[in-house]
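Appendix B. One record, verbatim.
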Amino acid sequence: METVTVSPKFQIVIPKIVREKLKIKPGQKLQVLQFGNKIEFIPVRDVKELRGFLKGIDTNIEREGDRI
């Protein structure tokens, strides 16, 4: 877990190890979500980057008897 400090302008620096793992680039947009007393930053990805990210996922869905 990394710790950051909020500047007087309410800015933070995303630690290098996190930026590298998530491939965050300068100018990239992040969604900010609040859950109770937590803040989450979600990188906004271009649709083209998402192509194939579900490759290999199991698409077999077990349905209930009344749904067939």
